[in-house]
C-alpha cells in the first residue's frame, strides 16, 4: 500500500491521435509538488490549467471531459486511471490540443511511460477517503455503490445483449501490480453498428482497430482479445479513472452493475455530498484502526 504521495522523476513525452477528434496531439507528463493533485495544462491555450477534479467535469456520456472556462480536455479517463493504478498523486499533463491521445485504447502505454520516467516517492503523507457507510445510486436497472473496506476494491458486472459479450463479471483489489497486469491492458471497445452514428455526430473520428476492439454482428474484427473478459476489465479501467475525480484515493469497495461514465461520475458526486459517510485518513490511521480490532475482523492481507 502506498502511504506517501508520489509523482514522476522526470518529464516524459508521447504523441498520438485523439479518439474523438481524430487529430494528432502531443502530450508531456511532468512531476508536480506534493498536494498538487493531477492537473491538465492546455499548452496550445497559453497553458490554462484544468485540475482533474469533479468540479471541473463536463457532462458527457461517451467519455470524460474536463473544462475550465472555455478550455476543455477530453478522454482523460485512461491516463487518470493509470495514475490512480500506480498511486501517482501529483502530476502535470501538458496537452497540445483538446484531447488526450488514445494510443492503443488501453492504459498500458501510460503505465509504460510513467515507469520510463520513474516514480518519485514524496515526503508527504497520502490522505485517503475512507468510506464508513454504504452509498448507492441507481439509473433504471443499473447501479453503482460503495461499501466500507480497508482497500480500494472494485467489482463490476456488464451485461450486453450482444452474443459476443453477454454477461461478464470481475473483482479486483486495485494495487499497482493488479492494475498493471490485469486491468491496464484492457482496451476501449465499440460496436460497428454504432460507428456511423458516432461519426455523424463528430465522435470516434480517430477510432480504429489500432485503438479499440471493434465488435461486428457476429465477430470481433480485431484478431484477438487480450483477455477473454477484456470488456468488463476495460469498464473497471474507466471506472477507476472516473472515480479518481473525487480528489483523493478511495478506501472502499465499489460495486457497479451495467454502469458507465454517468453513473461513475454520479458516485463521485454522491460521495462528495455525503460527508458523513466517510472521513479522510492517513495510512497510519488505517493501520492503527486494524490493529485495534479483534483478530477475527482483521483482513488476512492488506
Ligand atoms: Zn475507456
Provide structural commentary.
- By secondary structure, this protein is α+β, with helices and mostly antiparallel strands.
- The chain has two domains: 4-125, lpxc deacetylase, domain 1 (Ribosomal Protein S5, domain 2), CATH 3.30.230.20; 128-297, lpxc deacetylase, domain 2 (lpxc deacetylase, domain 1, 2-Layer Sandwich).
- Helix content is 24%, strand content 32%.
- It is built from seven helices and 19 strands.
- It has helices at 77-86, 108-117, 176-183, 192-200, 230-243, 261-273, 283-291; strands at residues 4-8, 12-17, 24-31, 38-42, 48-51, 57-58, 65-68, 71-73, 91-95, 119-125, 128-131, 135-139, 142-148, 152-159, 167-173, 189-191, 213-215, 250-257, 278-281.
- Strands 11, 12, 13, 14, 15, 18 and 19 form a seven-stranded mixed β-sheet that branches.
- The longest helix has 14 residues, at 230-243.
- The site of zinc ion has 5 residues, from helix 1 and helix 5.
Mean pLDDT: 92
The largest pleated sheet is described as: 7 strands, mixed
- CATH top level of the largest domain is Alpha Beta
Distinct small molecules: zinc ion
- Segments where pLDDT lies below 50 for 5+ residues? none
- Which quaternary structure do these chains form? single chain
Brief description of this entry?
It contains 7 helices and 19 strands. The longest helix is centred in the last third of the chain and has 14 residues, at about 230-245.
Itemize the secondary structure elements and their pairings:
Blueprint: E1 4-8, E2 12-17, E3 24-31, E4 38-42, E5 48-51, E6 57-58, E7 65-68, E8 71-73, H1 77-86, E9 91-95, H2 108-117, E10 119-125, E11 128-131, E12 135-139, E13 142-148, E14 152-159, E15 167-173, H3 176-183, E16 189-191, H4 192-200, E17 213-215, H5 230-243, E18 250-257, H6 261-273, E19 278-281, H7 283-291
Parallel strand pairs: 4-9, 11-18, 14-18, 16-17
Antiparallel strand pairs: 1-10, 2-3, 3-9, 4-5, 6-7, 7-8, 11-19, 12-13, 13-18, 14-15
Helix pairs in contact: 1-2, 1-5, 5-6
Zinc ion binds at residues 77-78, 188, 234, 238.
Amino acid at each position: 500500500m502506498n502511504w506517501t504521495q508520489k509523482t514522476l522523476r522526470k518529464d516524459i513525452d508521447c504523441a498520438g491521435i485523439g479518439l474523438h477528434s481524430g487529430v494528432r496531439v502531443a502530450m508531456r507528463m511532468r512531476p508536480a509538488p506534493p498536494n498538487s493533485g493531477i492537473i491538465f495544462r492546455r499548452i496550445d491555450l497559453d497553458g490554462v490549467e484544468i485540475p482533474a477534479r469533479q468540479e471541473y467535469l463536463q457532462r458527457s456520456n461517451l467519455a470524460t471531459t474536463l473544462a475550465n472556462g472555455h478550455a476543455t480536455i477530453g478522454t482523460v479517463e485512461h491516463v487518470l486511471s493509470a495514475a490512480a493504478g500506480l498511486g501517482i498523486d501529483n502530476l502535470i499533463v501538458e496537452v497540445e490540443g483538446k484531447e488526450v491521445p488514445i494510443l492503443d485504447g488501453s492504459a498500458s502505454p501510460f503505465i509504460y511511460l510513467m515507469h520510463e520516467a520513474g516514480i518519485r516517492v514524496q515526503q508527504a503523507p497520502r490522505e485517503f477517503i475512507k468510506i464508513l457507510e454504504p452509498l448507492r445510486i441507481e439509473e433504471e436497472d443499473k447501479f453503482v455503490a460503495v461499501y466500507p473496506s480497508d482497500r480500494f476494491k472494485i467489482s463490476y458486472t456488464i451485461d450486453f445483449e450482444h452474443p459476443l459479450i453477454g454477461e461478464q463479471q470481475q473483482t479486483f483489489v486495485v494495487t499497482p501490480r493488479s492494475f498493471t497486469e490485469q486491468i491496464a491492458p484492457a482496451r476501449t471497445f465499440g460496436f460497428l453498428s454504432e460507428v456511423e452514428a458516432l461519426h455523424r455526430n463528430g465522435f470516434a473520428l480517430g477510432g480504429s482497430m489500432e485503438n479499440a476492439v471493434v465488435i461486428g454482428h457476429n465477430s470481433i474484427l480485431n484478431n484477438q482479445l487480450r483477455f477473454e473478459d477484456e470488456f468488463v476489465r476495460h469498464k473497471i479501467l474507466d471506472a477507476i479513472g472516473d472515480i479518481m475525480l473525487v480528489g483523493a484515493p478511495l478506501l472502499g469497495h465499489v460495486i457497479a452493475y451495467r454502469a458507465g461514465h454517468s453513473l461513475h461520475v454520479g458516485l463521485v458526486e454522491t460521495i462528495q455530498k455525503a460527508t458523513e459517510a466517510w472521513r479522510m485518513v492517513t495510512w497510519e490511521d488505517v493501520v492503527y484502526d486494524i490493529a485495534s480490532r479483534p483478530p477475527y475482523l482483521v483482513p488476512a492481507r492488506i
